[in-house]
Amino acid sequence: VLRIDASRASAARGVVAVALASDVPGERWHGVIERDRPGPVNVGEEVRCDADALALIAAEREEDAWRAAALVEVTCEPLTPVLATHDALANGAPRVNPMHSNLLARSVLTRGNVASALAMSAYIVRDARRSAGLSSPPPVSALAVPSLNRMEIVTHDAFDEARADVARFLALPDFAVRLVSPDNTPAPRDHGLSVHEHAALL
Fold first, then answer.
1. What would the pLDDT profile of 58-78 be if each residue is shown by its tens digit?
2. Which of 14, 111, 129, 143 could be 154's S-S partner, Cβ–Cβ 3.0 to 4.6 Å?
3. Could you say which DSSP state residue 61 is in?
4. Mapping DSSP to helix (H, G, I), strand (E, B) and coil, where does residue 195 land?
């Protein structure tokens, strides 16, 4: 990203607030699984996916927000994308994320001798089981309600790691951020995408 100009968006009808990377008071890099998501992307950094935000907009109506988003002027330098796993792991591959290497983790599985284990077992139970298919995570959303000494965020992702993430992002003590689930049913924590920080900043 070479340039971001949100001045026209800030002046647009119905816009309440516009926030850029420079408006984040605390640790801008956040994430539920790894702290490797910029919120939002700053000038001089790279956009890695369509979920990376460049400017955050709060408006009175959804259509006002979309209209203002179209007024944000962004200049980018196209880079060669890394689209395959083997390309990302090759020597000399560009680093996909500046917070860690392209190899995020290494797991080693060691299997024993199945026939020998069965022969030594006192009991053997044979059955057929079928697991449910993996489903996509629900849409991620959050409503931030600021007060004098506290930030309360209503979200289905109301778990402790996300609360601590927001506190670091806003440079607030942990006790000043509270995450509340609207129906006391937290969403499954199987993704690293979060919008709590964006909502709290606006």
1. 999 999 999 999 999 999 999
2. 143
3. S
4. coil
Rounded-to-integer distance, Cα 142 and Cα 45, Å:
26
In the numeric block, which tokens belong to residue 9?
């968006």
Instruction: Report H helices in the chain.
Output: 7-10, 62-69, 85-88, 114-120, 160-170, 196-201
pLDDT digits (tens, 9 = 90+) for 77-136: 999 888 899 999 998 898 888 888 888 888 998 888 988 988 999 999 888 777 666 556
Task: Give the dihedral of Cα atoms 11, 13, 16, 19; nearest 10 deg.
Answer: -40
- Model confidence band, residue 185 (pLDDT cutoffs 50, 70, 90): low
| Alpha carbon distance 165, 163 (integer Å) | 5
Position 54 scores a pLDDT of: 95
Angle, CA 189 vertex, CA 185 and CA 194 arms, to 5°:
95
Q: Is the dihedral of CA 42, 45, 47, 52 positive or negative?
A: negative
Alpha carbons within 13 angstroms on the beta-carbon side of residue 31 total 14
- Largest Cα span, the chain: 76
Q: Give the global pTM.
A: 0.77
